[in-house]
Amino acid sequence: MNTNDKDLKIVPLSDDIRQIVSATGEGQLEIMRLCKDHSDPYLLDDKRPVFYDIGQDQLLCIFDFGANHFFLSPEQVYRFGISCKLGIYNIIALMVKSEWEIFFLGSLGYISNSKTKLKSNFLNKNLAEKHIPNFHPNKDRIYKTIRKLPYAKASIKIRSNINLIIEDMIKEQCFLCDNRLINEFYPEKECNESQLLRNAPEPLVKKYKKLKYLWKRRTTELEEKLLEGEKKKRINQNLEDLYYRTFGDLELDKIALSYKLKKYINVLELKEQNAELSYKYTAKKATEYLIEIENKTRELRKNYMRSLNCISGSLMGGTVGISQFEIANYKEEIKALLKKLFFLLHSDTCPVQGLSEVQKSGINELWLELMSSKDELFSYTPAMLMWSLPDYDRLLSILMRACKILGIEMEDLDVADRLGLMIKKGTSIEKIIVFLEHDIESLQLHLTNLEIIQDDYTNENKTQLYRNALEKVESHKLKFNNEILELKKQIMKLRDKIKLVFKKVLIESHNT
Fold first, then answer.
1. pLDDT above 90 for 314
2. Cα separation of 203 and 183, whole Å?
């Protein structure tokens, strides 16, 4: 792109409409044939006029920069673009400009019948640059409209790629310029990497290649980190289940005795505070203080019961009939699914903007389910096929629920290739290097965050305790039995003391 960004002039949408109509060879009067109330309107494939929802009077008002100015909607300029056979980048730019003009004049306080000088505001580059950071076009609406475009490339019609194009146009501010210049930003004849490097200085070529290598490596590391986390979570869950199958009955005995012991302690403490209290009352009151132990008991019982949900033998004779190639393919599918989930659920990369509080809450719940769920995992044994790999169906279920919350289709979730777009549009190698440096830093941050939460994510700290116990099963059982025996002794002592205390009260009351 040879155009100097600083020299770009802002062109109102109405001027784009006039210029595009003129370029098609149609006269000024022919523009009226776009409207619904013309006697011989231009029709699109749906057999409706291009502007099926506005009349000629309204269309003329797009050229009125006074009190009666009419704003075209993104859908209307989309239909106009199709009728004039514009390229997909030109149509997207028109749709973004349509939203921009409505947003921009709204920010300036323009209302219908206002005396605001519209054209001078439209053309004020400094004023536009002031408001652009707060401009967030409805990407979802643009995407759903553009995907209907019959002659656009399938790769461009992917949601993430359309989002990327919109973000790029806003960053470059090229959507504000004459629509005919869009082809200079996004040429029909796409560039490739060899063209990018052919005329670039050797030091920049070396730097680009080094950064691209690091960028790909960080991307791969992120995919591998997500996969390894899921695998470790499953392995650790299996180890936890083995622990509860081995020691669960002892854990339950111990906590039941701990509950009884704590209850007796509470009874005596209440009695010391008020000697007139009956045993029935103190026992009931003491139980109210044991909610924490009750919750822990329920958790232990749940863990013990799910630990029994285990298939002991192999499945279909172990790995017979499954090739290494098939297992490798399964891993790649899992990695692709995890990557989609990570970028869809992460607030920094979610392709849908402006989520409602309900949507945010739903997505946050799915993020927690992805990163730390235990109840969705099932016990497998090492004798079973691919026992340590994540469950594809579980991950797919999370993805489907996320798509439903966000109102998007699963086939639209391919992660956009920002580097590919920059190369295709002929971005300078200097700008591409800046992008790679920034994206590598972002990927590294994601990797660091995953490293920080890894122990919680995989339940590693608890699992280490389970691992230590399972290495010395008999000595750990002995330890449990000794603790249980000690608890029983303490309970017997407290029981005798309770009998004595309450009997003494009864005797004193009788004598009185």
1. no
2. 30
CA distance 454 to 260: 37
Rounded to an integer, what distance in angstroms lies between the CA atom of residue 30 and that of residue 32? 5
Q: Is 273 helix (H, G, I), strand (E, B) or coil?
A: helix
Please state the three-class secondary structure of 357-405 as a single string: HHHHHHHHHHHHHHHHCCCCCCCCCCCCCCCCCCCHHHHHHHHHHHHHH
Of 409, 396, 403, 395, the C-alpha closest to 362 is 403
pLDDT at 319: 41
Q: Quick check: 160 and 413 in contact, CB under 8 A?
A: yes
Tens digit of each residue's pLDDT (9 = 90 or more) over 210-224 = 999 999 999 888 888
Please tell me the distance from the alpha carbon of residue 90 to that of residue 78, in angstroms, as a whole number: 10
Assigned token pair, 426: 């002929």
Q: What share of the chain is helix, strand, coil (3-state, %, to 5)?
A: 70, 0, 30
CB contact burial 474-498 (16+ within 10 A = b; e otherwise) = eebeeebeeebeebeebbeebeeeb
Mean pLDDT score, 433-453 = 86
Q: Give the residue among 487, 318, 306 at the shortest CA–CA distance from 386.
A: 318
pLDDT band with cut points at 50, 70 and 90 for residue 95: very high
Query: Tens digit of pLDDT for each residue in 316-365?
Result: 344 444 566 667 777 788 888 888 888 778 776 676 767 888 888 888 88
Farthest CA pair distance, the chain: 118
Q: Report d(CA 428, CA 441) in Å as an integer.
A: 20
Residue 474 to residues 245, 304, 479: CA-CA distances in angstroms? Answer: 14, 19, 9
For 88-108, letters b (16+ CB in 10 Å) and e give bbbbbbbbbbbbbbbbbbeee
Give the chain's radius of gyration (CA, Å).
Answer: 34
Whether the pTM exceeds 0.90: the reply is: no
pLDDT band at residue 157, thresholds of 50, 70 and 90? low
For residues 394-414, b (16+ Cβ closer than 10 Å) or e, as one string?
bbeebbeebbebbebeeebbe
